[in-house]
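Shift notes (night). Ran histidine kinase while the centrifuge was going.
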Amino acid sequence: MNRKTFHLVVFLATISISGILFIQIFWMGKAFDLSNKQFEHNVNLALLNVTSKLCEINQNEILPDPIEQLSSNYFIVNLNNKIAPELLESVLKNEFQKREITEDFEYGVFDCTNKEMVYGRYINLKTNTYASPASSIFPKLNKDAYYFGVYFPNKTSTLVGEMWIWGFSSLVLVVVVVFFGYTLSVIFRQKKLSDIQKDFINNMTHEFKTPISTIALSSGVLQSPEIMHQPERLTQYAQIIKKEASRLQNQVDRVLQMATVEKDTISLTKQEIDLNELLIQCIQSAQLNLIQGGEIRFDQQTTPALLQADKVHLTNIIYNLLDNAIKYNETIPKVVVSTSSNTKTLVLTIRDNGKGIDKKDQELVFKKFYRVPTGNVHNVKGFGLGLYYVKMMVDAHHGKIAIDSSPEGTTFSIQFPIRS
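Came back to this:
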């Protein structure tokens, strides 16, 4: 699947999931509104019948529009005469049961003479139990007529509870969305890994083909009979073969090393090492790769700099960092190496004057196969294994490595425990 097709599939899948979520939320809202309207309709019909019966008993006429809904769960009914609480409660319960309204409710009766609610109770229709309501439930209204109020305190939670099938379907949809998101993240990680490995294979092919081709061409020249009479050319091509063979061997060793050494199986042969002496040796070797005018300066602040470490791996750590400081520098390399220490740690710092590494790439440079993006051009070929190996070996020595980079250059700092 090419990049455009992959992005199109991800886009369409995201749109589909978003559409399903929108439809689910929309219809949940519609279902709740429908249940709410149905409830209010049933309550209005029940209260209208209650009003009719009370007026019939009291031989009064029904007032125009006697029922007022002050909120989604608070209703009042206006009457022309006093209201007997016991009779009201009995009629309310009967009418609510006829309309299959099983919601708990509270009612209060207003006395227009004393201008206060004189009676009221909380009724649980399912268990037929009673309790006194809070006085703040039924606020006083500016009315001169008799009226009673009916309040449903748990209306919203009850309606939501009756929509359990919607809740279940929403839960299933959330699980699907989470799984979809996790699947996308896995796909993105796998695709990124695939791209990195593809880049690694391309780089490895180039790194192997170049010395092999050079060796093959030089061998062809050496097979010429005339070369025997040209000792200078003979020596020159022999040196080319030796140099390219050494380069090829180094590349093979690096790949095999990373293929065989894993975090959980690293075996270190530790010995007491003077880091300063080892640095001097590594710097002398790295200076052979410097262009004219390049410099590696050693700022020795700690004498001696002793620690317990594996000499082979510690040498590789230092050489990898020095090699990167030289290779990835577009100007004349100026590298400063320094050491410092305290009672617990020995710190190695390598600072260069390169163009630096972007902030977003600094957290990724220690990943396996990762190389800082430079578009489609890599002036310096590599496998993206050097810093991964450095980080792995530093961790194996129970140390810590940090990177600080800016357009003026990059600094790698490694803290080694003096006793580990």
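The chain is about 50% helix and 20% strand. Residues 269-417 form a domain with the Heat Shock Protein 90 fold (CATH 3.30.565.10).
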